[in-house]
Amino acid sequence: MEAVLDMMQDRRVEVADMTKVQSKLQQIISGGPDHLQFIVDFDYTLSRAHKDGKLVDCSWGVLENFQELPSDYHKKVKVVKDKYYPIEIDMSISLEKKIPIMIEWYKKANGLLSESGVNRSWFPRMVAESNCELRDDTNLLLNRLNQARVPVLVLSAGLGDLISHIMSHFGVLHGNTTLVSNFLDYDQEGKVVGLKEDDGLIHMYNKSESILKRSQGDNYADRKNVVLLGDSLGDLKMADGVKDPNVVLTVGFLNKNIEESLETYKKNFDIVLVDDQTMDFPNALVTDVLKVSAVSVGSPVTV
């Protein structure tokens, strides 16, 4: 556990119960890659929250901020976001009150999509022209997990079509990755008409068992050690669909309202990464997992 214990001393890492966390880390590391799976959020978890003091686009933002969209659409999107975003990040509002408001937000955003005039052929240019970026060394993390055949489930309330393009753009959409998200519907000319709602709208507070069952199968039967990466309290439910897990390590990226939210995050996540725009901690954990695996089979350690 050398690499991960070194990271635990980093000023970006906050832990409420060190004994519990060390026990979970030991279970995950000793279990090796064959019993491991990662369940991760995308927006502001795999992707950065900010860079050089400026906010970066989430997957919705890649579409909504595309400069060639009608100015009227931009104005309407801003009005909706200005109304609902402060509610999303307000820790004083209970989940019971917040959930219907978030659903209302997503439905309004969905309604505006039909007015955007977006064509699916624009997506590569949207991504290339946006300021969306992945956290530092996300490519290293996802490449190593792919090489070790560790399944990665990306579960997002964002726009799945654009997340797929973003991950492809940065070269991290591998064969071990399953993406469960909201996907767009198109007319015959490829124009966006709204969201597909056949499987139900995914928002930040319903990443629950019913959604995960759409992605979990026999390939996950032996994957009882789970590392969960998220940036909101709603992300904690992402592992609810894992049947009889041995251990679930929850890692929360705290990107905003740090002073007001830190204690709440520490009470709910095993590990809190404070304004950390890197994948240093997950990479340290994977380093230790792969070292143990390499030693156990007598092969050279490559990390």
What would your notes on this structure say?
- The protein has 303 residues and is of the alpha/beta class.
- It has helices at residues 2-8, 18-31, 42-46, 59-64, 71-88, 95-113, 123-129, 138-147, 160-169, 209-212, 258-268, 280-296, and strands spanning 13-14, 36-40, 50-51, 54-55, 152-159, 177-182, 184-186, 192-195, 225-230, 247-254, 271-274.
- The strands form three sheets. Strands 1-11-10-9-2-5-6 form a seven-stranded mixed beta sheet, with helices on both faces.
- Strand 7 (184-186) and strand 8 form a beta hairpin.
- Helix 2 (18-31) packs across helix 12 and helix 7 packs across helix 9.
- The protein is globular.
- The two termini are 14 Å apart.
